[in-house]
């Protein structure tokens, strides 16, 4: 009888975890190439093992001084969504009564179901990630997941985009494309679309001078906002001028902005 009660309790707990937005399946051991499917929204997360990586750029221009100084950062292991969160995924959250309907004209159209959701505020992105049992990534986590440990310029290395994906920077599509639809745009950990996808909201406050005093272990961004109070945005170099298409590029936006050019992906700390 105790065994039966335990089995029923286990099933009930698993059901409760899914209903609350937490994945029922335990996380696998970290390793490059390891993935972790999520029950709530069917996202697949990729593993980013613990260790150091090179963050920022060693030769900033007058337009990219916020990327300096280049520095070594040591991160604990974490998980990051393999792609941006899609319209179809957010529709589940809207149907569950936990998320607001995005402002995108493409939201709800079948042909855009597997495109990255856009026109969401920072708070709405945060709410979604929490509903799904995850969180927004830090700047350091996003950059490591995109660049790996060797300070490369793009997810695939240092070769120019036109030699890898056939389209040079500054000539990308004006609208969104289906997530993961550019196979060459894959990071060392298996994250897709860090270059060809949309720019994404980040957990950190944005401060152009943050790197000067950023801690070397698990940096979380500035402790408070500087004026104007902006949240960091990372990624989405396809279609951007070459200077801003590199993975080291940083920018920020007021958190209540709804932009057709800003989406998000989530992260998760190791249990």
Task: Please describe what this structure looks like.
The protein is α+β, with helices and mostly antiparallel strands and 271 residues long. It has one domain: paralog of FGE (formylglycine-generating enzyme), CATH 3.90.1580. Helices cover 20% and strands 14% of the residues. It contains 6 helices and 9 strands; from the N terminus they run H-E-E-E-E-E-H-H-H-H-E-E-H-E-E. It has a 4-stranded antiparallel beta sheet. A 3-stranded antiparallel beta sheet has the order 6-7-8. A hairpin with a 6-residue loop joins strand 1 and strand 2. The longest helix is centred in the first third of the chain and has 18 residues. The chain is globular and about 45 Å long. The two termini are 32 Å apart. The N terminus is likely disordered.
Please identify which CATH superfamily we are dealing with. Answer: paralog of FGE (formylglycine-generating enzyme)
**Beta-strand residue percentage:** 5-15%
Gap between N and C termini, in Å?
Answer: 32 Å
Instruction: Identify the strand order in the major beta sheet.
Output: 1-2-5-9
Count of separate DSSP helical elements: 6
What is the arithmetic mean of pLDDT?
Answer: 91
What fold name stands as the CATH topology? paralog of FGE (formylglycine-generating enzyme)
The total beta strand count reads 9
Computed over alpha carbons, the radius of gyration is: 19 Å
How many domains in all?
A: 1
- Structural classification: alpha+beta
The top level CATH class name: Alpha Beta
Percent range for helical residues?
Answer: 10-25%
CATH architecture: Alpha-Beta Complex
For the biggest sheet, the summary is: 4 strands, antiparallel
The outline comes out as: globular
Unreliably modeled segments: 1-23
Topology order in helix (H) and strand (E) letters: HEEEEEHHHHEEHEE
């Amino acid at each position: 009888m105790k065994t039966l009660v335990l089995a029923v309790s286990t099933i009930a707990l698993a059901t409760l975890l899914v209903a609350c937005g937490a994945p029922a399946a335990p996380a696998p051991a970290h390793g490059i190439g390891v993935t972790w499917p999520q029950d709530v929204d069917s996202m697949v997360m990729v593993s980013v093992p613990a260790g150091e990586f090179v963050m920022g750029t060693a030769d900033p221009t007058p337009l990219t001084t916020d990327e300096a100084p280049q520095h070594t950062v040591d991160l604990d292991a974490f998980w990051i969504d393999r792609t941006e969160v899609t319209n179809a995924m957010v529709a589940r959250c809207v149907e569950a009564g936990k998320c607001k309907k995005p402002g995108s004209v493409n939201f709800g159209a079948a042909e855009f179901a597997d495109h990255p959701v856009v026109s969401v505020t920072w708070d709405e992105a945060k709410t979604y990630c929490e509903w799904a049992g995850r969180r927004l990534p830090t700047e350091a986590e996003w950059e490591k997941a995109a660049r790996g440990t060797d300070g490369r310029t793009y997810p695939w290395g240092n070769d120019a985009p036109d030699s890898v994906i056939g389209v040079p920077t500054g000539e990308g599509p004006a609208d969104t494309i289906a997530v993961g639809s550019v196979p060459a745009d894959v990071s060392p950990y298996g994250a897709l679309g860090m270059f060809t996808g949309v720019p994404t909201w980040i957990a950190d406050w944005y401060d152009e001078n943050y790197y000067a005093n950023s801690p070397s272990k698990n940096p979380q961004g500035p402790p408070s906002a500087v004026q104007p109070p902006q949240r960091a945005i990372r990624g989405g170099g396809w279609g951007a001028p070459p200077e801003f298409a590199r993975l080291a590029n940083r920018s920020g936006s007021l958190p209540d902005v709804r932009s057709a050019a800003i989406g998000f992906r989530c992260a998760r700390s190791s249990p």
